[in-house]
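worker-03 picked up job from queue 'complexes'. Input manifest follows; two sequence lines, order preserved.
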Amino acid sequence: MNDYLRSLQSEWMKTRNTAASWLVIIGSFFIPLIMVIIGMANADKLPGKYSSPVFWQNHFAVSWQIMAFLLLPMGVILATSLITQIEYRNNTWKQLHATPQRFAVVFFAKLSVIILMMLQFFVLFNIGIYLSGIIPLLFSKTAAYPVQGFPFVFFLKNNAQFFIDCLPIIALQYLISLQFRNFMVPLGAGIVLLVAATFAIQWKYGYIVPYTYAALNYFQLRSATTQMVPVNIHLLAVGYFTLFIIVSFIFYTYKKDKC
Amino acid sequence: MANYCVQTKNLTYSFSGKEAILKNINLEVEEGCIYGFLGPNGAGKTTTLRLLLGLLKKQHGSIAVFGQSFEKNRLEILKRTGSLIESPSLYGHLTADENLLLLQKIYQCPKERIRKVLELVGLTQTGKKKVSQFSLGMKQRLSIAVAILNSPSLLVLDEPTNGLDPNGIIEMRELLKHINRHQGVTILVSSHLLTEIEKLVTHVGVIHKGSLLFQGTLAELQSKQLQQSVLAFETGNDVMALRIIRDNELSATIDNGRIVMEMMEKEKVAFVNEQLVNNGVSVYSISITKNDLETIFINLTNN
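worker-03 finished. Artifact:
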């Protein structure tokens, strides 16, 4: 366990000043910033909006719309590929594998860093959602703070679901990124799968495509009953994640050339 | 019996079932020595070193480091080993300190080692400069700092002078000698240039096309140099001189307008000279041509 924690610490340090770390910060505040601008541009509509008894639920859902369909999966694809690229780009796999660490420790420490970055994204994005709900009030003379109290449980539950839904993307992208030195391979594969998922959402068996879950969860959040799926997508996401991680670990461990 | 720090037995390796890159390599690196692993590009040096560090999966043969099987004691062996394989392996977006700090976490060595190794390689003044902005020489020195961070007992260096200017090569040589003498570190260093490491190493192994052609001390290689020295006669009539020498049951050849013979005792040289002069052949000069180590290396790898 200590070996894992030390390795995790070391892996986390590698993300300092990387494109992936900036992507998380910029990506998490992008939508909230747009929401603030929209709010300020439509200041006259704010009183009605803020007096709604489900203001935060609505605000949360609007904030997640493009995030769930495009930005979150795309961000996960990019961040995962960029994290493994740190080793390829710097030619450091050989140095890393010549350190006294079990391959399992390296594998899971790196995966943990990606997951931690996603958690960081979720925290920052939710702070952004909250701020984008509050900041427009500062520019409105008529609107008041939402009458509804902040629904912590709702936020926690739905964030947890979105988080679980993007785990299969992390796992599959991680698998591909570890196998290919060329950054374009995991990126290309990710984009192709994401486009496929966009079409698959319309299909009644679309839920078998592991990149669809964030979007499907969004439909469920908005209670779009026509898009409801007959299975628990979160369980499916966990299943896919486990499967991809096992396959990825086997490929990684048995890779003949560890340079 | 010698104590081997690294010992391989019949190490054989091929990529995807093609022709063997390494053929029965029996490397014997004595403890405390500086072992120069020589061979032209593509000879199999890097493949051997990668196998020693577990970066390639072993196919045939055995590897023992510190007298222990590498397969069974990978982590214990790597804890006591430092390495630099080919080009520098450094995180360009981090500073020199940060590069060392993240490895310090893994090796669990004291934090003071970072300052110490930076001092040793002369990189204490780099401050917040990112490694990507370093010159190749600085990167190479930082790579050495990375390799010695954990105070290893064995240092495996693959072409550490690649891309260095003559001054850089001398500095690197002095640094490695210092580490070897003062810290008792066994160094296994590969190169494709004998001249570059002959002033550094105590032992030499020459590999070519996957086979180990020579292995021994530098002194043994130098005695090979003496054995391969030749005697040259500059005469007025090479054809007649050659016939006279052969009539005396000695072997010689004509090379570049000279009669070339194997090295022999001085009495025999006087005898040949006398025979030539007595038979009317003018002898203008007699000289000894020594093969330098580089020529021996080329001869070994060309044969």
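worker-03 released lock.
DSSP finds eleven helices and no strands in chain A.
Chain A has a mean pLDDT of 93.
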